[in-house]
Amino acid sequence: MNGKRIGEIDYLKCVCILLMIAFHLVFFSEKYPLAKQWVYTFHMPVFLILSGYLMQIEKRPSEFLRAMAWIFVPYMVMETGYVVMSAVLPVRDKVDCLSVGLMLEKLFLHPMGPYWYLHTYLLCGLIYYGVFHWAEKMRLVSRLVVLGTGYAVLADACQLVSLPNALYFLAGVALRRSGMTFTSFFCPSVWALIPLVWLSADMANLNRFTWGGVAIVYLVASVLLSLYTVIPAGIRRVSDYVGRHTLVLLVFSPVFTMLSKGLVPLFMFDETGFCFLFVAMILTVTGSFGIAWCIDRVGVSPYFWGKKQMLQPFHPK
């Protein structure tokens, strides 16, 4: 990994973040519970594998901790806001009584909403850095065993992360450290669609925490990668751009998925829910990028993201 963007990886990130947004829209997801269960089998595992694969630990401790701090800042701001809004709005995960203790508990121990991913990313990343630098003289397999043990303690003893989620992150670490490229392991193949359909037909496999679910994660990534080279170049450039900014969508999309509930009465005529999905997705994606653009323009990005500008220029050609 030399810092150069990998189009296939940005494309996978784009697909997964858009699926996350789609099935966080309650009006739509409740119409298709089976599709939601299928998507939930693979979309966050793919993200976690990519997170472990892409995390760079070849840094001095001060540099690495600074990078983690600039993930924590937007996480802290948005998780706090999410908890407060959950106390005000009529949402599913209703907060009955706000308190400092509750805020700290949600922030450091058990986050609400999609921000659990950033919480897991931070904890798994810190332990990954610590183990691989503390045990740098160990063989790779030994370091991976120590890292997996650390994740087990974090999950079972401390109850801070889900062990299966941490293991998906560990899988990404193992892939990166093995020296294999991502697309060498996740071989693009449209033929993977056959076993994917067969496994997906069994409800017992629609769980990312089962061996069938693990196979579905691999097969979905393989099928999606096989489509990357055949999609139109314009769509590919858009997917690459979205994939480069998944943090923006992860951080700000809950604002708009909550606001989208106000649109539901306007789309009661459409029993499929796809009209609502289309409008809500456009609102969420453009709104999230709009907030990021405003933060860049008013000069807040150095204090929120730790960089002068978050959004990169989009080149349509």
UniProtKB/TrEMBL annotation:
Keyword Transmembrane helix: yes
GO molecular function: acyltransferase activity
Membrane spanning residue stretches: 12-29, 35-55, 67-89, 115-132, 144-170, 182-201, 213-235, 247-267, 274-295
Keywords, alphabetical: Acyltransferase, Membrane, Transferase, Transmembrane, Transmembrane helix
Domain Acyltransferase: residue ranges: 7-293
First-tier enzyme category under EC: transferase
EC number from the UniProt entry: 2.3.1.-
PANTHER family in the cross-refs: MEMBRANE-BOUND ACYLTRANSFERASE YKRP-RELATED (PTHR37312)
Protein name, UniProt field: Acyltransferase
